[in-house]
């Protein structure tokens, strides 16, 4: 074969047509900020990289396809800086072999090969003769790419390579389906040397740029295509490298100064960043290879989405739709991780305290002392087209903040953070009493202040998530059952902190409020005939008599007495609620049950982790183990081998895995963290920092685990490493492998 034989089939711009008829004509269903989905998106498998405030979503072949309502692309700070990046080999799409993220998430690797190549009905190069290895790495908001070709043919070949690219500067809410009345201006791209520069002047008066730089000079370069030819002798390799950077002019200038010189350097830098993010974590390993892999993947998911920004340090909620700070998500994620990494919880608490509400501003559902719900940095948030630049529409973030801080103090035995954040504690308590409970009935309720905000402001924030048994939607103001549990936990945990700080009167007052809340809750929420608690009280103080997973959160907070907890536990684990994979958000017999819905019958891993934690709190270890086992088996059946945001609530069938939810986020912070909360539940694990003691109360491990190892668990100023083994005659044996400092380990039977 002579060099140049393949050139005749490399022509055209290679546009892709997704064939999908979905339109972007609707963004709201009821009062929801709805995420529209395309039928292609529901079929497409993707690969995700994340770093800082940036992430990139590719198809399995490492391409970014322009397709409506799909979150493919390179995003930074809620803006898409690359909307197309497709590879052609001699004018054709390469055959896909495999792709995978490295275990440390430092790079995405893709293996491809050539299809049959030729022209006029003649094959000049049979398929599978060229190995095409693609690599992507994302470091400090710069996307690095390498394409490496190897010739396995017996003759030299000349291979045309075409890269097709585009930039739309779409806001993430546009990608989700919001139809804008007008947009800013995209300028004509500039081409200089080996770089194409795109520029967008936004309606928020900010200019955004994308630069695509090729290390090797293309044979041809336009505003949407770069063409190369690689000449390869037998068994020879050649490669191309490039990088894509997006942001403001200041951001681009900073990254040019600090950008690694090559793809390999970028991977090593990202690897070192991830290693630093993992420092301070207790290390957990298991005898079961699949469960051990799930633990490591979950930890990798979390460290990949650690973000540092002007707003502070936090873990992003989830990719692609929630790649930002969410108060509720961050707090529940930190609850799950607390004994295994208290430092990241401290950073999150500081960040949220600094963003607490300072004024009464209805347009943002903000009141003094309220913990923020969501922060957005994109154009549409800046212009007010969506209300989420800094939005406070969650009723539960504030008591969750207090509960986490109380647990953090008890776990670490350190009062310094409480002293530092005490102004935020006092203002959060004032918010609960003044703004959370506006009618003075003792319950924290919500009603949105702005018609552009969220109608439902608990974790189930779909517009149809709070209903009565006959299917009627509850009328606000609404008092959710789990929120009262969070308030109870906030009172009890902060009362202990206040007592340790010497605020005895305050501690007594909070303890009295907790007792009063518990009594009133039993009177108004407990449904003795159903063996559960009401989902909520509506605006007429009428209970929503439906079976939901929300009730399980009341177990986690200790709001119920022993008899109530026993009845509720049995209902949660019955077929009505338990799918075989996990606890459904809504019971099968309820009027609004739909296993494919977002909040009315689906299964959420974080929700199940809280349920397991609650079951464990009341000594129901075997039931907590069932939840852990269901989640583990679900993860084993999913391509990611770890847990997504949610999946459908269909009943488990033999030899079939869980039914995926089409637009579920992955990685999702509180889902990735859920396995660590479930471990706390089944082991009865408590770290008591003031006493320098670890308590393991009636531990139980599933039958598919022989041992579980926890290394470098922080206890006060020291640390301890433990191995928990299944005993030959039943039960669990606990071995202390190593201790640093005066630490005691108490095992209760």
Search tags:
alpha+beta, Glycosyltransferase, Beta-galactosidase, Chain A, domain 5, four-stranded antiparallel beta sheet, 2 domains
First-residue to last-residue Cα separation: 76 Å
* Low-pLDDT residue intervals, each spanning 5 or more residues: 1-31
Shape: globular
| Beta fraction | 15-25%
CATH second-level architecture of the largest domain: Alpha/alpha barrel
Q: What would CATH call the class of the largest domain? A: Mainly Alpha
Quote the average pLDDT.
Answer: 93
Q: What is the β-strand count?
A: 36
How many separate structural domains? 2
Radius of gyration, taken over Cα atoms and rounded to an integer in Å: 27 Å
Tally of alpha and pi helices:
17
Report on this structure.
The protein has 749 residues and is an alpha+beta fold. It has two domains: 7-276, Beta-galactosidase, Chain A, domain 5 (Distorted Sandwich); 280-683, Glycosyltransferase (Alpha/alpha barrel), CATH 1.50.10.10. 30% of the residues lie in helices and 25% in strands. The chain has 17 helices and 36 strands. Strands 8, 9, 12, 13, 15, 16, 17, 18 and 21 form a nine-stranded antiparallel beta sheet that branches. Helix 11 packs antiparallel against helix 12 (504-525) and helix 15 runs parallel beside helix 17. It is globular and about 80 Å long. The chain starts with 27 loop residues before the first strand and ends with a strand.
């Amino acid at each position: 074969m002579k060099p140049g034989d393949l050139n005749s089939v490399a022509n055209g711009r290679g546009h892709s047509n997704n064939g999908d008829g979905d339109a972007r004509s609707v963004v709201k269903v009821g009062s929801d900020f709805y995420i529209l989905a395309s039928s292609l998106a529901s079929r497409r498998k993707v690969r995700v990289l994340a770093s800082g405030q940036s992430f990139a979503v590719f198809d399995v072949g490492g391409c970014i396809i322009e397709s409506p309502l799909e979150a493919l692309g390179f995003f930074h700070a809620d803006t898409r800086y690359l909307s197309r990046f497709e590879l052609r080999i001699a004018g054709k799409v390469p055959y896909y072999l495999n792709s995978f993220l490295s275990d440390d998430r430092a790079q995405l690797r893709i293996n491809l090969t050539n299809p049959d190549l030729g022209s006029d009905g003649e094959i000049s190069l049979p398929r599978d003769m060229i190995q095409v290895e693609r690599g992507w790495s994302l470091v400090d908001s710069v996307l690095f790419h390498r394409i490496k070709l190897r010739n396995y043919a017996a003759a030299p070949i000349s291979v045309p390579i075409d890269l097709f690219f585009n930039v739309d500067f779409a806001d993430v809410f546009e990608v989700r389906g919001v139809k804008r009345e007008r947009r800013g201006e995209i300028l004509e791209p500039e081409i200089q040397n080996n770089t194409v520069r795109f520029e967008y002047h936004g309606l928020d008066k900010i200019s955004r740029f994308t630069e695509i730089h090729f290390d090797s000079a293309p044979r041809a370069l336009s505003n949407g295509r770069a063409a190369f030819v690689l000449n390869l002798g037998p068994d020879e390799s050649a490669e191309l490298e490039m990088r894509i950077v997006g942001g403001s002019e200041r951001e681009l200038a900073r990254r040019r100064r600090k950008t690694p010189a090559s793809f390999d350097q970028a991977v090593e830098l990202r690897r070192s960043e991830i290693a630093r993010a993992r420092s301070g974590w207790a290390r957990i390993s298991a005898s079961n290879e699949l469960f051990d892999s799930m633990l490591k993947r979950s930890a990798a998911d979390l460290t990949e989405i650690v973000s540092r920004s002007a707003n502070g340090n936090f873990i992003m909620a989830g990719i692609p739709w929630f790649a930002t700070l969410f108060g509720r998500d961050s707090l529940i994620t930190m609850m799950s991780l607390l004994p295994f990494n208290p430092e990241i919880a401290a950073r999150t608490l500081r960040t949220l305290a600094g963003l607490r509400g300072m004024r009464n501003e209805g347009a943002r559902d903000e009141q003094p002392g309220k913990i923020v719900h969501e922060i957005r940095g994109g154009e549409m948030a800046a212009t007010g087209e969506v209300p989420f630049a800094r939005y406070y529409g969650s009723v539960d973030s504030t008591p969750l903040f207090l509960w986490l801080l109380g647990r953090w103090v008890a776990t670490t035995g350190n009062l310094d953070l409480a002293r530092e954040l005490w102004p935020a504690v006092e203002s959060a308590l004032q918010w609960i009493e003044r703004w959370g409970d506006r009618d003075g009935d003792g319950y924290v309720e919500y009603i949105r202040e702005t018609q552009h905000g969220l109608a439902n402001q608990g974790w189930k924030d779909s517009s149809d998530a709070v209903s009565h048994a006959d299917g009627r939607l509850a009328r606000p103001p609404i008092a959710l059952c789990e929120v009262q549990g969070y308030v109870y936990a906030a009172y009890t945990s902060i009362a202990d902190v206040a007592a340790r700080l010497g605020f005895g009167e305050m501690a007594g007052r909070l303890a009295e409020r907790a007792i009063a809340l518990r009594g009133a809750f039993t009177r108004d929420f407990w449904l003795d005939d159903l063996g559960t608690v009401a989902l909520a009280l509506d605006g007429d103080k009428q209970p929503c008599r439906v079976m939901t997973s929300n009730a399980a959160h009341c177990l986690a907070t200790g709001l119920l007495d022993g008899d109530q907890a026993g009845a509720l536990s049995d209902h949660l684990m019955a077929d009505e609620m338990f799918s075989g994979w996990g606890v459904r958000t809504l019971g099968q017999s309820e009027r609004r049950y739909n296993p494919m819905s977002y909040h009315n019958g689906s299964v959420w891993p974080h929700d199940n982790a809280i349920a397991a934690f609650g079951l464990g709190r009341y000594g129901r270890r075997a039931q907590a183990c069932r939840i852990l086992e269901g989640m583990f088996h679900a993860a084993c059946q999913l391509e990611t081998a770890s847990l997504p945001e949610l999946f459908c609530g269909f009943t488990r069938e033999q030899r079939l895995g869980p039914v995926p939810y089409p637009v579920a986020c992955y990685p999702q912070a509180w889902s990735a963290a859920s396995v660590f909360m479930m471990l706390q539940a089944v082991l009865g694990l408590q770290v008591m920092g003031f006493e320098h003691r670890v308590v393991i109360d009636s531990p139980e491990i599933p039958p598919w685990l022989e041992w579980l190892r926890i290394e470098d668990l922080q206890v006060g100023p020291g640390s301890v490493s433990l191995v928990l083994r299944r005993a030959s005659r039943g039960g669990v044996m606990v071995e202390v492998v190593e201790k640093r400092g005066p630490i005691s380990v108490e095992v209760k039977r």
